[in-house]
Amino acid sequence: MIRTFTNSEHRFVLSGETLEHLDTAVWVDILRPSKDEETAIERALGIDVPTIEEMSEIEVSSRLYTEEGATFMTTMMLSHTDGDNVLLSPITFILKGEQLITVRYAEPRSIDAFIARCQKGATYTADGVVAGLLDGLIERIGDVLERTGHELDALSDNIFAIKAPLVDGAVAEKVSKRNKARPRNYQSVLEQIGRKGDLLSKVRESLISFQRLLAFGTEIAVSRKPGKEYEGRLRTLTRDVQSLSDHTSFLTQKINFLLDATLGMINIEQTGIIKIFSVAAVVFLPPTLIASIYGMNFEVMPELSWPVGYPLALCLMVLSAVVPYQFFKWRGWL
């Protein structure tokens, strides 16, 4: 799909979904172009439109370069950001003269929001559209990080069973007992930590690509001379990306901490289970020994002929089980 935008009557408007108004277009937005559309655009603009394979290459020279009088800048943007299954896809900004051409294969809401905001009033230049699009995409990354931070806080509360303080002490005690009785699903916790880690790795990759694009765009601005306002916005976006990168590092460290804490909790639970089996084995070992002794088939065993022999054996078995149990409890091992 091809959409062209132009300035008309002091407004930035959609001029059409064909190349008919290409001469007056300020922004040509190309979404999932077909082969025929690519050919038509290349013929009309005299540029080589990169394919999605070329846009996805990780070499800087394949993403940021100048060719045939046009500047190509590719970055990785986030879409489907409402959940953890975020899609990372490339978008290429092509600046040629006073025109901007964008090539993309995803539809993030931040771009649609920018288009709706542009059409409410004012006019835009190609460089202004670039700055606006970058601002919207980076702001969306910030929203994703903010949501992820809140979800990690909730996950931390779940792992460490941290509850909000209650005014009523009796109610608080009742809730505390109920929470202790409720087993925690550590498998679900590990799955959530894994999803958050994968999300942050995509965010980090996107931020790195934005950092490189902004550095390259700042260098290109020297020759294009778009104005101090545009250069100032690029510097502001660079600072925003740096702050988001720092916050991403913090959240990554928090994920590693929560992962280590979860594995530690699992080890503690496993140790507790093994301890129960060990104590049970020690407690039942003396009664088993006594029962084994009196279960031997020897002819001469005086206790077998005693009238109180059977009750005495039972009492010895119970006593031999109670004494180790009380000893373990006294030492605090239970």
Automatic annotation (TrEMBL):
Keywords: Cell inner membrane, Cell membrane, Ion transport, Magnesium, Membrane, Transmembrane, Transmembrane helix, Transport
Keyword Transmembrane attributed: yes
Annotated TM spans: 273-296, 308-328
Subcellular compartments: Cell inner membrane
Membrane topology: Multi-pass membrane protein
Any Pfam family: CorA
A cellular component term, taken from the record's GO annotations: plasma membrane
Family: Belongs to the CorA metal ion transporter (MIT) (TC 1.A.35) family.
Name of the protein in question: Magnesium transport protein CorA
